[in-house]
User: Fold these one by one.
Assistant:
Number 1:
Amino acid sequence: MNIGNAAEKSGLSAKTIRYYEDIGLLQADRADNGYRDYSMSDVHRLRFLQRSRSLGFSVEECRQLLSLYSDKDRESATVKAIAKAKLTEIDRKLAELTELRDTLRLLVRNCHGDKRPDCPIIEGLGGKDRVAA
Amino acid sequence: MNIGNAAEKSGLSAKTIRYYEDIGLLQADRADNGYRDYSMSDVHRLRFLQRSRSLGFSVEECRQLLSLYSDKDRESATVKAIAKAKLTEIDRKLAELTELRDTLRLLVRNCHGDKRPDCPIIEGLGGKDRVAA
DNA sequence: ATAAAGGTTCTAGTGAGTGGAAGGTCAAGG
DNA sequence: CCTTGACCTTCCACTCACTAGAACCTTTAT
């Protein structure tokens, strides 16, 4: 399939897909006319990239995640270590996102129509105290 | 408190904090010596920024989220609309992140020691089909 | 007094795209 | 056959969100 189609299916722009090819994240086949040609498997990878990027992983982290996805050597210690580290990070992100959501919900519900300048909920918004990593 | 301290407490670098001030996200008081001076409330805001950024929200989105946080006019329709849109987005991110985690877990567990070139889990990695927005 | 640590501003560079020009390809209609 | 419009190609310049480093000032500890 052509790049426009792959873009639509993956949620990435065609420009971004070309850029990912440039930096070696995912190289596509070429049709006889020179057009890039994507398989469904490529589209899966692209969607995977779209998600991980939008969830705050860097391109380099996505490259590692993709290697879990594509690597024939999936049982290697390195790859497993990466996967485990990523899992930990994902769990942290999940916790933070959940907290953010709860706070926002509370804010929407409880501060509705409330004109008090110092809504008591505000102070909780920074999340629980924790030492910086 | 000085910027270094605020940086440590918020998880942002001092450079980033200065940058956020540059673009008008959060302006700090100044002490007599010219040093920036942060309150705990500022630190809450900074941590809030650190989180929302790391969870994939753009700086402009963070600016909106911060306005929920800081705005005295919290009951306004605009602000509430923003909050609701953000909540929807957060829920979507939560779902995606959960899916990513489950997939990664499955991959780590089930592909251990498995040298087959086409691990059947792989095909699931792109997530459920959905039409691009 | 002096050194180290931390603050200031400034300019420049990086990572991750995005926009637009200039041109090639393809399917449909006149 | 020719044109029109949608889609593809490459390339270069621009934006956004930092990040590094220089040059210099302030505070703290010895």
Note: The first helix of chain A runs from residue 3 to 10.
Number 2:
Amino acid sequence: MSRPDLERLGAVYPRYLNAVVLHGLATAQAVGLGATDLYAIGALTFEGRMTSGELAAKTGLTTGATTRLIDRLEQRGLVRRVPDPADRRRVLVEAVEDEAVDLDDTLAPAREKLGAVFASCSPEQIAALTEHFERATPAFHEAIEAIRKAE
Amino acid sequence: MSRPDLERLGAVYPRYLNAVVLHGLATAQAVGLGATDLYAIGALTFEGRMTSGELAAKTGLTTGATTRLIDRLEQRGLVRRVPDPADRRRVLVEAVEDEAVDLDDTLAPAREKLGAVFASCSPEQIAALTEHFERATPAFHEAIEAIRKAE
DNA sequence: GGTAATATCTGCATGAAAGCAGAGAATGTT
DNA sequence: AACATTCTCTGCTTTCATGCAGATATTACC
């Protein structure tokens, strides 16, 4: 791979990441949630129900703070507490589908604009992007883990 | 473009974005900054000096809150206030290079892991990714603007 | 030159998020 | 059956980012 290509990527990529994060912050603020709360909803939506403790690990919060986080989300009807039948100390938390309406509205502009970006891609480009996202996602999660361990 | 391709992208992409945002949050926390503060540094680094008011517009904060944001960053030596010679009401803010050492360390894991992801791409894939990032960045910024207007 | 508009800063107040330490409930371990 | 461990929750406290409204300084307009 030629050097100019990599240089261009190196210039573009940080700005891109910055924009993604800022969009996340703006979204959270628009729906009246903290950024961590918004992430938690995402995690619950994408990965399904999990225990309070698992959510604490994912968010990097203490278990106490996580209880409060779940309280907040439950009060807004975005999330539901379900007792774990197998271990009654545990609480399973699951996202309430259909209740994230305003969140959906807030994400609409991004969906629209990025939809346009993707729509003008060739199938080969879509394939390349999909593969990248698939590989980058675990990379970010590993980096998160490394960051937290280093603290 | 075939439907299965788009479905796969639709499944992967939200998780990817979630991971990026979470990484941003974890990074901010690791260096002891708020998420907004971290974004501000990025904006100043990538776009160069700007006035306090411009920074307020970019972050979505009031000018008062932005003054405090600059105070915080200045106290840590990450940012510098420079009087605008053309208009002495204004204050230009610029990132202090070389001072973001711990931030660099915190970003190191992501750089490494994502570097590996990019390194195993063909030149064509790199080109597709770079082009995507270039087009997605303004799309996100437009979406941010739309979100804030809708509020 | 005098008044209005603009840009940043300050004081004050508030709300919200998170940590910590201990309580309560359930499970496992010997 | 007793004890230790695990999981979530609660009370309390602290920290901190942010808004708001007014103060101050500078520039623009008439």
Note: Chain B touches chain A through 70 residues (CB under 8 Å).
